[in-house]
Amino acid sequence: AETQLARAGRAAAIGLLAAGLAHDVKNLVQAVRSGARLMERRAEDPAEVRRCAGLLGDAAERGRRLVEAMLDFARGGGGEAEGQGVPLEAGQALLDLAELLNRTLGSGWRVKVVVPPGLPPARGDRAGFEAAVVNLAANARDAMPRGGTVTIAAWVEDLPESRDDIGLKAGRYVVAAVSDTGAGMDAATLARVGEPFFTTKGPGRGTGLGLATVRGFCTRSGGALLLDSEAGRGTTAAMWLPVA
Ligand code: ADP
């Protein structure tokens, strides 16, 4: 059930990115169409034809890069055991993902990544980590319907004593957190999030699988997902992952 959930979460993450990508591709195709029309109309003017050809080439290159980034992400979900036992460079993974998220979340939202140099490697597979970040970023976006900044940060925490209440053993952790300044959650919602299929987004919009898969990824890696949220102020979802 755990791997099935992880697969569902990854599929959901790919779907979220693909929806954003579809929008970008539509704009690109539009640009190519008008470039081609202009070229037809100005066929007698070599300078203008050359300029249009340049624009068309640029659009094609942007399209290629978009699809390439998407494929890279999708390929990460390859083998089941892939990446297991390989230390996770969470900071680099976040920096790599930021570009893809910035292109796919939508034009009203911006992703800001704050990662210190020299972050130690953590436990967790990269594919699961990426899917978790995409799910959290999509939630952060949805919590700010009028747009805003999604902040993704990573840092190190030392836990001197075990905390059974939040499911963390004493030790050193890499924390990767996604924050928004959006709707936040009331106590009743907070108590239920992470339950598979719990969603407040309405039919056809939410699956209620996002946080359940993020939580599953964290516990599988020996860590935990901690949520800090206040209605009307925003949410920070922090993935605590043991240092490898
Ligand atoms: P989904 O996004 O498909 O609804 P999730 O498991 O990711 O599924 O989230 C469950 C619910 O938790 C959401 O419907 C929403 O009510 C709440 N939630 C999750 N993240 C946030 C957030 N960043 N801000 C406000 N509410 C959130």
Automatic annotation (TrEMBL):
Tell me the domain of life.
Bacteria
Q: Which residues form the Histidine kinase domain?
A: 20-244
What is the name attached to this protein's record? Answer: histidine kinase
Q: Which organism is it from?
A: Falsiroseomonas algicola
What is this organism's lineage?
Bacteria, Pseudomonadati, Pseudomonadota, Alphaproteobacteria, Acetobacterales
Intact protein stretch covered?
Answer: 344 to 587 of 587
